[in-house]
Amino acid sequence: MTDSTRQRILDTAEQLFADQGFHATTLRQITREAQVNLAAVNYHHGSKDALILAVFQRRLDELNSERLARLQSVLDASDPPDLEKVLGAFIYPALLLSTQSAGDGGRFMRLLMRAWAENATQLHGTIARQYSHVMRAFADAVSRALGTSPDNLRQQLDFLIGALTYTMAETTDGQVEETARALVRFGCAGLRDSALAQPRQTSLKENIA
Amino acid sequence: MTDSTRQRILDTAEQLFADQGFHATTLRQITREAQVNLAAVNYHHGSKDALILAVFQRRLDELNSERLARLQSVLDASDPPDLEKVLGAFIYPALLLSTQSAGDGGRFMRLLMRAWAENATQLHGTIARQYSHVMRAFADAVSRALGTSPDNLRQQLDFLIGALTYTMAETTDGQVEETARALVRFGCAGLRDSALAQPRQTSLKENIA
DNA sequence: GTCTATACAATGATAGAC
DNA sequence: GTCTATCATTGTATAGAC
């Protein structure tokens, strides 16, 4: 098969990256374990950095689709959407992914924090572009739930993303539900309180993260 | 001078790491720019990973000392300490460091997120050990400000650390005060609300992050 | 103790045959 | 698409000068 090579590389790379980190994992190790030729990685993905990026793209596509689907359900349920449920639609799929991503023990999302490192320019930029659509949708939903302008929420949503990202790296299988509930509660309180402070509608310069 | 070589390596490495990332920066580039011999890095620091760790140690020592000093001032001011000021003592020095660290343009703390990547085991573990003293002191102060057990605050403080870390990577010079105020407010609201949910005193298994 | 010059195995990447 | 052979560059180790 021609396409199975590409996918086999992706699967093996994801597992090895999660276990050993990006730098410690060599292309020779990946290709040996995936039973493909060394040059196949560069042929199918271009470079090692591009392979790392491809590993992320696949998971982030799942994650963001799931988030948007859940958000739509929440928006359909009530017109001023429920803030807790909006944040839940953002947080819960991420924590789920962090502990049970497709086959491997569940250590995939530890890579998200690992990944900010290495090729920060290319990878962080691409991830940000991936998130920008989702971020816009959620910022809009949160703003309607609170009755404030979406612009003022960017910073607080960044706080939430930071807390979520950091938490993903530390959460293990059994704690997903409990952790998600705690983080939703934490974020709701912070957002509601910040909304009281800035009820006006000003616009800040764009700062996508 | 005998000590200037070690420090020159540290300074040059910090700047290059911040600009290009850890992996992209080679030892030959560092030693060339610092005008020292290639082997000097391994002689003074042991390895490239150890050099990365040393770069962090230096800044984290400053940061944690500053945090504890400010915390002491807050504790001296009033016996049930003011929660806003406690969080400020934790957050403000970090954001300051992230934008104006010792000479270089201020891109140092961008490394903190970058760093969780590469040698996650050794570096993340050592950083956690560095933070554990500070974390304990702040958890204690927050618990007294709220009137709850410190154990129940671990998770919420982790949320705050995540938000802070993520924010540090994105904050630029002019936004320190404003960002710190917003993050303090966000964290206070989350902590106060979570304290209402769990006023009991149970103990969870240790999970230092 | 510090520093230098040099050497080494392993890595990511590429070119060209099939 | 896949493979073999090969390249420049990397982090690290060592031997020896000051």
- Taking all Cα atoms into account, the compactness measure Rg of chain A is 19 Å
Oligomer: homodimer
Main sheet attributes: strand count, strand direction, barrel closure of chain A: none
Beta strands of chain A, count: 0
CATH uppermost class of the largest domain in chain A: Mainly Alpha
Which labels suit this protein?
homodimer, 209 residues, mainly alpha, Arc Repressor Mutant, subunit A, Tetracycline Repressor, domain 2, 2 domains, elongated, disordered C terminus, DNA-binding
Blueprint (SSEs and pairs):
Two copies of one chain form a homodimer.
Chain A: H1 3-20, H2 27-34, H3 38-45, H4 48-77, H5 83-99, H6 110-115, H7 120-146, H8 154-168, H9 176-197
The structure holds a DNA duplex (18 and 18 nucleotides).
Give structural notes.
The structure is a homodimer of 209-residue chains. The model of chain A is unreliable at 102-106 and 201-209 (pLDDT under 50). Chain A folds into two domains: 1-46, Arc Repressor Mutant, subunit A, CATH 1.10.10; 56-197, Tetracycline Repressor, domain 2 (Orthogonal Bundle). Chain A is 72% helix and 0% strand. The first copy, chain A, is elongated, with a radius of gyration of 19 Å. The longest helix of chain A is centred in the first third of the chain and has 30 residues, at 48-77. Chain A contains nine helices and no strands. With 209 residues, the first copy, chain A, is mainly alpha-helical. The A-B interface holds A 21-24, 110, 113-121, 155-156, 158-167, 169-170, 179, 182-183, 185-194, 197, 207, 209 and B 21-24, 110, 113-121, 155-156, 158-167, 169-170, 179, 182-183, 185-194, 197, 207, 209. Chain A binds a DNA duplex (18 and 18 nucleotides) through helix 3.
